[in-house]
Amino acid sequence: MKPSAFAYHDPRSSGDLMALLAKLDNAKLLAGGQSLMPMLNLRLVAPDHLIDINRIPELAGIRLSAERVEIGAMTRQADVLASGDLASVAPVFGQALAHVGHLQTRSRGTIGGSCCHLDPAAELPALCALLDTEFDVIGPHGARLVPASDWFRGYLQSALDEREILRAIRWRPWSRGHGHGFHEYARRRGDFAIAGAAALLDFAADRSIRRAAIVAFGVEPAPRRLGRTERALLGRKLDNEALAAAAEEARSLDAMSDLHVSAEYRRHIAGVVTRRALADAGQAAEVTA
Amino acid sequence: MIARRINLRVNGLMVEAEVEVRVSLADFLRGQLGLTGTHLGCEHGVCGACTLIVDQRPVRSCLMLAVQADGSDVETVESLGTREALSSLQQAFSDHHALQCGFCTPGMLMTLEAYLRDHPSPTREDIRDVLSGNLCRCTGYQGIVDAALQAAQARKAAA
Q: What ipTM was estimated for this complex?
């Protein structure tokens, strides 16, 4: 249960980090360490170089403007949860983060770490898919922006190249008072979910749906937007038929199976949590609109 | 680059030490400083036994390298009370029989110590949520939750 030997680097600036990434082979980036450290301890990974990015201040922080929300990759999950500013523009974060690990893991765990590790059941990457965030990436060959639609490449696989890092995620905020819902089901509190779902809704004055986003996670190897339902909801009211259609699409996903949970059961749970998340989004919007 | 010199504060005292870079903060405290109050259960971030407070936040010390604590302020279970004068939290654990084998207790105490500093009036549900990251396999949580609520009251009364 001890990591194999590695060389340790703790660059103090993005420039120093880029120089290390360009030159070192078989290197791993250490963010909050809440997934990588267990993997090191279990020797599931054995890098020659560990590059600790916890001492690069410019990688952390939450920046808000009317047009844009930006969260630095090294922002701790505890700080995301505690941000009142973020809670007012994207309240779904507070709901989701209550399910992310535990008090002790949120102290260290980062949003960028979650988004690069990409556990299929991780909540924060699912929110990125939900919000269509841009992923601000930089590497030795320069910076690029990766849309959420291109970020998720499969099980534990992001669009990040071996020598690139995620600097920040950003998105255009939804209108004030938008509806939001989040539900997941896990065997134990704080564990990765068997399945989860989140939804955002914007309503017109006549209570017809103007904008909709729904994501199911923990079901397929990467979070999945329910595009068919999102399109079908536009211009309609959120009634039982609409909720049933959303659950139906979630149940049609290509669900994973594992030792504890069959694909069929996972599809069932996906349908249930999707329906609940969407219904909550409708309720929340009614209260605040 | 296999070893590094680090400086940190541990329970109020400045410590300077040479540490192998792959050594966890928990192993450093136990092995090099002899502070064996911090217990290691699973060593992969599941059980919470090794929880301590780093820069005012509860962390799992098996998931942090000692070298990462360079410049930090670390508080372990040894900082809470003495054998003769237990802290109110420790006393509450004793009063409510909130431990049997005691292996998980240091992590429980440090999690609650960190939490109660920021949340002086927790509900029963709050405590259960906070303790979801600390596993106890013998006593069960009833006494621990009762102890946490008593400690919160005692701290408020003393404040």
A: 0.95
